[in-house]
Amino acid sequence: MTVGTEHEYSINDPAYRPVPCSDALIEELWGSIENEIPFAGVELSKELQKHVLEVKPAKPSDSIAALESALYHGLSQLYDRFSGRYQFLGLGMHPTLRLDETRVWDHDEREIFEAYDRLFGLSQHGWLNIQALQLNIPYRDGPEMVAIFNRIRALIPYLVAVTAASPFVEGSLTPRIDNRVIYYRANQRRMPAICHGVIPERIACVADYEAIQAGICSDLLRAGAEMLCREWVNSRGVIVRFSRQCLEIKAIDEQECIRSDMAVTAFILPLLRAKDLELEEEETALHALLDTAIDRGTEDLRPELLRLYAAAERSATRDERSYLPTVKRRIEEGSVGELMVREFRDTQDLPSLVASLGDCLRTNPPYFGSP
Question: Measured on CA atoms in the order 142, 246, 112, 237, is the torsion positive or negative?
Fold first, then answer.
C-alpha cells in the first residue's frame, strides 16, 4: 500500500530551547520566505508555530524502507546545513516550551491563522505546542474509504497508547503520558463538532462523512469564518482528504526519530488489511479507551495491543515486518512517553533526557531508555 507521512519537528538552539525561526530558516535555504520548499529530496513546510518545521517525502512510497531512507537523508542534510546552529526535536510536544517562546506564522496564509485566533484563541498549548506524525492512506473508491475510515477510527485509542510521547508541559512532569491529545481535543472547544473528542463517528457511506463536514461548515458560517470551510478544518483523529483521495491520520504523537515513525507506519498498514479483526466500535467505549491511553500509555492496554501486534505480524509484508520489533518493544516496555517518565524519575535531569531524544532524531536509533 502506498503511504505518505508528515513529520513535525521543533527548531531549537544547541541547548534545545525552542527558536521561532521557521521563516528565517526557509528564507536562508531558498532565498525567500515560502510556505513549502524542496530540499535534499524532501519537502520542508511551515507550520502554525514558527518553532516547528514539517518534513515530508517528495512523493508517497509503497516501501517503508525507501520512505525512511529518503526522509532520513533529507533530515541529515538539514542537520549538516545548520551544523552547530540548530538542533531539531521530535515528540508530541516540546517538553519545556512556554507559550511566550514561540510565534504564529505571519506570512502567506496568515489570514487563516488569524481566523482561528479570532474563534478559538491561538495562545494555548493545543495550538502552539503540538507535533504530530500524520499518515496519509490512499483509497480507491467510496466503499474502501468507508472501510478504512471505520477501521482507523476503532484503532485510534491503541495508536495513541503506543505512540504517547508528551508527558512534560513547560518543563514539568504531568500525570499523563500524552498531553498533546488532551490539548488537541480542547483547542476548538467553542465548536466541539470540529474535533468530536478525537474519535470520529462511525460512517456507513461517503454521504455520512459529507454530512459531518456540512455541519462543521454551517457552524463556521454562523461564526463568520467562511474561509475555514475546507476539508482540512475537520480535526478528528482521522479525516478524509477528498482532494488527494486519501485518509489522514492525525491522532498520533510525533516520535523521537524517523525509524520509530516508520515502525508505527509498519504497524498500522497491516492492521488495515487484517481480516476478521474484532475491535470495539461503540463510541463511548472508544472514548474511555482513549482516556486510558492518554493517562497510562500502553500500561493498561497491553493485552489488547499484543493481540493487535499478532494480527499485524500475520498481515505484514516483508518490508513492514522488519520494523515491527520496535513496536513490540514499545508495547512490552512502554511508549516513548512512558520511558521518558521512568528516566526522569531516576535522574531528575530533564535537559539530559531531552538531549538524548534529540540525538535519536539526529542519528536515527529508537529510544529505549538509558542502558
Answer: positive
* CA distance between the termini of the chain: 36
Per-state percent for the chain, helix, strand, coil, to nearest 5: 50, 15, 35
The C-alpha cell at 13 is 538552539
Per the structure, the complete domain to which residue 203 belongs is given by 106-359
- pTM metric for this prediction: 0.97
Domain annotation covers residue 184? yes
| DSSP annotation string for 304-325 | HHHHHHHHHHHH--HHHHTTHH
Count: domains in the chain: 1
Evaluate whether residue 182 is within a structural domain: yes
The mean of the pLDDT values for the chain is 97
CATH of the domain at 201: 3.30.590.20
Q: Which three cell numbers stand for residue 211?
A: 454530512
CA distance 146 to 75: 35
**How long is the chain?**
371
Rounded (5°) CA angle 291-181-220: 115
Query: Looking at the domain assignment, is residue 49 inside a domain?
Result: no
Per residue in 227-285, pLDDT tens? 999 999 999 999 999 999 999 999 999 999 999 999 999 999 999 999 989 999 999 99
290: three-class secondary structure by DSSP? helix
